[in-house]
C-alpha cells in the first residue's frame, strides 16, 4: 500500500502505472488484431477471445493500482444474479469520469467487458481510439434534427449503423453500456435543464431504445446501476491520488418488457412515449434511491 505517501506522489505513481498498463496491453492488442483479418472462422474466434481477455487484463491491472493507492471501502448490493455467459445492457447515473473505472472495477469478470457507444470522432484519440476500434466498440454518428432537415436521405442511417455494429455481438455474450443522462451531472447542467430530479439530469431514452431495437432479443436483461460517492463527486485525479475512500453501488437487474423489443423509436410515436415514460419512472426510482443512499452514507469531511 502507498497510503503513507503524499497524495500527489500517489497520483504520479498511479498515472505512470496506468500509462504503462495501457501502452503494453494496447501493443499486444494491436499485434493480435493483425490476425483478425484472416478469413478463417477459428482464427477470428480465437482472436476475439484473446482480445477480450486482454481487455479484462487491462481492467484487472487497473484494479491493482487502485488498490495500491487507496483502501477504498466498497458498499455493493444486487450483484448476485449476474452471469458471465449472458449479454446485458448496463446503464447508470453519471457524476464523474470515475464512474467508468468504478463499473469496470466491480463488474470485471462478473460479466463480459463493457463496450460503450462512442462518438465517431473519438476513434482519432491517440492509441486508445485504435484500441476501442480493435475491441469492437460501437462508434455512432448521430445526426442533428437540423442536419436531417437539410439531408433527409440520412434519416435512419445512425440506427442502421447501430444494427450492423450490434450484429457482430449476436454469437457471443457482450456487455453494452450507455449513460442515459448523456453527460456528467453538475449543478449548472441540473439548473439549466430544470431537471425534475434532485440528484439526476433528465434521461435520454433514445440510446437505450436503439440498442433494444438492434439486439433486444439477445439481451438477458437491463442492469440499472446507481452510484453514490459519500465524499462528494471525485475527479479523475482524486482517483489517481487515492482520495476516493467510499463508493456505494447498487445493481438492479430488470427484465426487458417484451413490448419494447424490436420497435422503431424514431418512427413509432406511441412506442416512443411509452418507452420515455418507462425510463422516466426508472429515473424517479433511482432519484429516490440516491436520496436513501445520501441518508445512509452521509457526506464525510
From TrEMBL:
UniProt xrefs under Pfam families: Acyltransferase
Domain spans labelled Phospholipid/glycerol acyltransferase: 88-230
Species assigned in the record: Pseudomonas arsenicoxydans
Name assigned to this protein: Acyltransferase
TM ranges: 12-38
GO molecular-function terms, A-Z: acyltransferase activity
Keyword terms of this UniProt record: Acyltransferase, Membrane, Transferase, Transmembrane, Transmembrane helix
Keyword Transferase: yes
Key word Transmembrane present: yes
